[in-house]
Amino acid sequence: MNLPHMFLKKIKIKNRIISDKKPTLIVAEISANHNNSLKETVSLIKHAAKSGVEAIKFQTFDLDEMTMNSKRNEFWIKNKLINKKWNKRSLYSIYKEAQFPYKWHKKVFKISHKLGLICFSSVFDEKSLEFLEKLNCPAYKIASLESLHFSLIKKVASKNKPMIISTGTLTLSEIDSLIKFLKSINFRKLILLHCVTEYPANPKNINLKVISFIKEKYKCLAGFSDHTSGIGSAINSVGFGSCLVEKHFKLSNKSKSLDKDFSIDPKMMKVLIDESEAAWKSIGKRTKKISVSEKQYKKYRRSIYVSKNIKAGDEFSNDNLKIIRPGKGLDPRLLKYLIGKKSKTNFIHSNPLSKRKLGLKLKKF
Fold first, then answer.
1. Between these two residues, 211 and 363, which has the higher pLDDT value?
2. What is the rounded distance in angstroms from the CA atom of residue 261 to the CA atom of residue 228?
3. Which of 195, 218, 269, 301 could form a disulfide with 166 if both were Cys (CB 3.0 to 4.6 A apart)?
4. Could you tell me which residue, 3 or 97, shows the higher pLDDT?
5. Cα–Cα distance between 324 and 317 in angstroms, integer?
């Protein structure tokens, strides 16, 4: 009997379980922030670990497999992008600056492991995939602009490791096509990332509700690849069900890298990690439950108190009853049923009005 295809609701990358029942995994994306310096890269890794980051990610590609060193117009970026450092340049020159050298990989993987970090990479071509396999890369990221590169995705899937796929620039029908393809090859270890491909991304374009939509429609784990310049959207994404957040990471605001405008420094990364965990803890369940500590405050709610001495036979009125704090008296919702009724006993000023002493049968509210 053929069972229906289902994406896993719990995925393990090294020893870290990723699921809706675990705190959101924050991934520090190095990307072009290495600034072509191994020393700076090592410093980034150490600062990431010190900030409390659990996972760090690089980008691995062969320059000549990524693009061509051509002078044709389509290989050049015109003066149209928000990120001015990318304008009036060839794709080849940009990727050359951003490329993370193969020869550095072994060392940075080793240092990352020694510091207890999960270290993995975005992969852009089959040559790089085989190279990363030799380093025992525990998971693979597919960048937004590669998310319809099905021949590459099939090769990555064959390694049977978790695959994180960004969906920037994809229409809903294109995401449908991607999901259909993954099901056709029976791949189950998927984390699908909502992403807006702008650098930096404008928060008004982020539309975080897509995360919960992805989870519901495709029945898979979902996350967020954040290209905004701050951390508000990343933290907010947790409440929409993001199990993984990817955020570009730089050493300081003095960085001159291609990605500096949508990257955060170690201080902000620490805030992101702490606040994301707090946001995850605060999600809770779809049931209203008063916490143990909240019950202590319940007695300070408002209730009905006697504001003037009342004798037996006097009518209850807004003049001799008052709704005040604390909550030892009668429920304030009962006041309207008391007004105009005669008291059967004496009540002293500032005493709570109690049902037991009242001796009246009141309607339920």
1. 211
2. 8
3. 195
4. 97
5. 15
Plot region of 280 (φ>0 → left; ψ -120 to 50 → alpha; else → beta)? alpha
92's tokens? 């080849």
Residue 36 belongs to some domain of the structure: yes
Question: Among 125, 121, 227, which residue's Cα sits nearest to residue 167?
Answer: 227
- What are phi and psi for residue 93, nearest 5 degrees? -70, -35
| pLDDT tier, 358 (very low <50, low <70, confident <90, very high otherwise) | confident
137 in a structural domain: yes
CATH assignment of the domain containing 238: 3.20.20.70
Residue 54 lies in a domain: yes
Domain termination site, one of 249, 281, 313:
281
Task: Give yes or no for a contact between 258 and 30, defined as CB atoms under 8 angstroms apart.
Answer: no
Last residue of some domain: 281, 304, 334?
Answer: 281
Non-local CB neighbours of 186 within 8 Å, separated by 6+ positions: 5
**pLDDT band for position 2 (cuts 50, 70, 90):** low
Pair 128, 57 in one domain? yes
Instruction: Report CA torsion sign: 239, 241, 243, 246.
Output: negative
Angle between helix 126-134 and 102-114 (nearest 10): 40
Q: What is the mean pLDDT of residues 102-121?
A: 98
pLDDT at position 3:
59
Determine, yes or no, domain membership for 144. yes
pLDDT tens sequence across 212-269: 999 999 999 999 999 999 999 999 999 999 999 999 999 998 888 888 899 999 999 9
- Both 157 and 226 in one domain: the answer is yes
> What CATH number should be reported for the domain holding residue 352?
3.90.1210.10
Question: For residue 252, what are the domain limits?
Answer: 16-61+99-281
pTM of the predicted model as reported, rounded to 2 decimal places: 0.85
Count of structural domains, the chain = 2
Tell which wins on pLDDT, 354 or 160: 160
